[in-house]
Amino acid sequence: MVFLIFSGCQKDDICSETTSTTPHLVIKFLNSENPSNTKAVTNLQVQEENLLEDYFETPINDTLIKIPLRTTANFTNYIFTLNAPEDPDAEIGEDDALPNEDHLDFSYGTVVEYVSRACGYQILFVGFEASRVSEESNTNWIESIEVQQPNEITNEIDTHLFIYH
Amino acid sequence: MKLPMKLTRIYLFIISFFALATNSLQAQQTASQDSIVIKEKFGVRVGADLQKAIRSLIDEDFQGFEVLGDYRLYKDYYAAAEIGIEEKDYTEPYLDGTASGTYIKIGANYNAYENWLDMQNEIFVGIRYGFSSFSQTLNKYAIYANDSYFPVDIRETNQEFKSLNASWGELQAGLKTEVLNNLFLSIHVQLKVMISDKKPDDYDNLYIPGFHRTYDSSSFGVGWGYSLSYLIPVVKKDKKLKPLDL
C-alpha cells in the first residue's frame, strides 16, 4: 500500500511525455502531381511571422512535421521556406537553389481543458482553418492545402493538414 | 553481656512490631488473592491538534485547526470524532490554487494496550468516516505546451469553485499517554481511501480539507496528528483486576 502511494507520487509530480497535452499541428506533405504519394520538402524551414527565430534548428527533409500553434491568440501565421539555407546569414551561391517563402495563415478557436496536477491545462483547437497567401507572379511552391475533417486539433495522432507541392 | 531491662523491652517492642506488620501484610495479601478493585474513569476527552496549530504558525501556505473528542463507551472501545477547518495554498509546476473548507470525522477507537492498574495509556487503532465541504480556487495556471517556441501562456484567473464535497474512510493507529492527571498527549497516523469526490468542472480537488493531498493515480491519502486532550471524568467504575499468577 505504501508502495502504491509513493509510486503514485512520482507519476503525479512529473508531467509524463505520454500524457496528451496541447497538441501540435500535424502536417503531411504530398505530391501535387500524384496526391496519394507523400513528397518530402527539400530543406524546409518554418518560422512564425512575428518571431525572429526559426522553428527547426536546421532545415529538414521530411514528409510529416509537427508545429505549435499560438494559444494566446486565435491565429498563427507561418512562413514555410523551401530550399532554406543551412546558415541563414551565409550568402547564397550561384549553384544553390533559391529559397522560396510561402505564407500560410491558420485560424481557430481555443478550448481550455484540465489535464492533471502535474501537467496543468491544455488547449484544444476547434474550427481550424488554413489559407495560403497567393503570390502575384504565381511563385508559390505550395500548390494547394487541404484541412482534414473534422477540423479540430485535439491530438497528434491524426494529421490535420495536407500540403500539396 | 547483660542488657539493661529497659533496652530489652525496646528491642522486644521493635521485633514484635515488625512481626506484626509482616503478619498483617501477609493477611492482606491473602485477602486480596481473589481480586483488587480499582476505580476506572469514564468520561469525555476533548482536545486540539497541536500539529495543525503549530503548522499554521510556521507554514505560510497552511491555516488549520482541529478539535477532537472521544468518549469511552465500553472497556476498550471509544466513540471518537474530529472537527476541523483548513485553508491550504498549493503550488504545482503549471498551476497554483487554494483549498478552503471544513470537515468532520466520526468513528471509533479500540485500545489494544493492557494497562497496569489504573493507568490510562493507549495503543489504539481507529476507523473514521470523513466528510468535507469546501471550495477550490484556481489562482493561476499555465497552458502546458510540450514546446518552447512560443512564450509560456500564463493565465491569472482567481476562479473559485464552490459547493464541493468529498467523503472518505480512514484508518488510524497511534499512541496516547497520560502525561499529567487527566491530560493526554497523543500521536497517530492516518491512511485514507476516498469514497466520493465531487470535482469542479474542468478542475480537480488537488487538496481536500481533512483528507489532505489527493493523487491522480490512486484514491489513497495520508496524514498524521499530534494532539493534546483533557479527560473530563463523568463516571468512575470499579474494575476488578485478576490476580497475577506468581
Q: What is the element layout, followed by pairings?
A:
The complex is a heterodimer of chains A (165) and B (246).
Chain A: H1 2-13, E1 25-30, E2 45-48, E3 64-67, E4 75-82, E5 100-116, E6 120-132, E7 144-147, E8 161-164
Parallel strand pairs in A: 1-8
Antiparallel strand pairs in A: 1-3, 2-4, 4-5, 5-6, 7-8
Chain B: H1 5-31, E1 36-49, H2 50-58, E2 62-74, E3 77-92, E4 95-111, E5 122-142, E6 154-180, E7 183-197, E8 207-208, E9 212-213, E10 220-241
Antiparallel strand pairs in B: 1-2, 1-10, 2-3, 3-4, 4-5, 5-6, 6-7, 7-10, 8-9
Strand content of chain A: 35-45%
Q: At CATH's second level, what is the architecture of chain B?
A: Beta Barrel
3D shape of chain B? elongated
Q: Averaging pLDDT over every residue of chain A, what do you get?
A: 89
The count of strands of chain B amounts to 10
Low-confidence stretches of chain A: 1-9
Q: Could you give a short account of the major beta sheet of chain B?
A: 8 strands, antiparallel, barrel
Q: What does the radius of gyration of chain A come to? A: 19 Å
Order of helices and strands of chain B: HEHEEEEEEEEE
Q: If helices are DSSP runs of H or I spanning 4 or more residues, what is the number of helices of chain B? A: 2
Structural class computed from helices and strand pairing of chain A: mainly beta
Q: What is the assembly state of the chains in this entry?
A: heterodimer
Secondary structure: number of strands of chain A: 8
